[in-house]
Amino acid sequence: MGRAAVGLVGDLTMGVDDQDAQRERDKQRQLDDTRNKFAAFSRQNLGRETPLKSTKPAEGPRQTGLIPMLLFWLAVMGLLYALMTHYLKPKQPQVQANGDLIIARAQDGHFYTPGRINGREVLFLVDTGASLVSVSEPLAQAAAMHGGVPTTFQTANGPRAGRVVDGVTVAIGPLRVTNVKVGVGLSLGDDTQALLGQSFLSKFDITLRQNQMVLRAR
């Protein structure tokens, strides 16, 4: 092959290589343009460039966020409990200028009032249908009510052995009665509670109003 032919082949080969290189550069330019456009779109619409998919595992809920939330709800529940306890707490009886004692009706429809048995503070449930003031055995021991006459109480759960103690002092506010008969052996579910029956109530005239019970000394 002559030198002219060889030169022509060489020129053709260089021309093909140049064309391939140009095409690669064009592809790279188009790829760069596409990346730049996508990055610009991300900044405009997402406020930041879209990061590459992270290989870091997704984190669960932050523990530092969960603990304050639990503390907040515990505080709310504690506040609600305190408010309900205060709202449901039996009110002190009110004494009128004429000496009448007024007991307010509780939310459950019953009448409760703080009082004393032999000087021992108790919470009375007023029951006009009960014949005696009644207390549990632990409360009787705490209030120094010893001895008495053995008896059997008829309760909703059947007969219950107990005793009746005479000569007990019972008081509500300024109203005080001595020599009261008290039944010992019945339980109201709390040893600080007692049933206020007719052995005390019979000493007073009782008037029921809408949400009040009025005790007036005879």
**What does the largest sheet look like?**
7 strands, mixed
- Quickly name the level 1 CATH class of the largest domain: Mainly Beta
- Mean of residue pLDDT? 79
| Beta-strand content bin | 25-35%
Query: What is the alpha-carbon Rg in Å?
Result: 46 Å
What share of the residues lie within helices?
A: 25-40%
| CATH architectural designation of the largest domain | Beta Barrel
Number of strands: 11
Uncertain spans, ≥5 residues at pLDDT below 50?
2-14, 48-54
CATH topology of the largest domain: Cathepsin D, subunit A, domain 1
Return the string of H and E elements: HHEEEEEHEEEEHEE
CATH homologous superfamily name of the largest domain? Acid Proteases
Summarize the structure.
The chain is α+β, with helices and mostly antiparallel strands.
Q: Any overview of this molecule?
A:
The protein folds into two domains: 52 residues; 124 residues, Acid Proteases (Cathepsin D, subunit A, domain 1, Beta Barrel). The N terminus is likely disordered. The chain is built from four helices and eleven strands, in the order H-H-E-E-E-E-E-H-E-E-E-E-H-E-E. The chain starts with a helix and ends with a strand. A hairpin with a 2-residue loop joins strand 7 and strand 8. Helix content is 37%, strand content 32%. Strands 3, 4, 5, 6, 7, 8 and 9 form a seven-stranded mixed β-sheet that branches. A four-stranded antiparallel β-sheet has the order 1-2-11-10, with no helix packed on it. It is rod-shaped and about 125 Å long. By secondary structure, the protein is of the alpha+beta class.
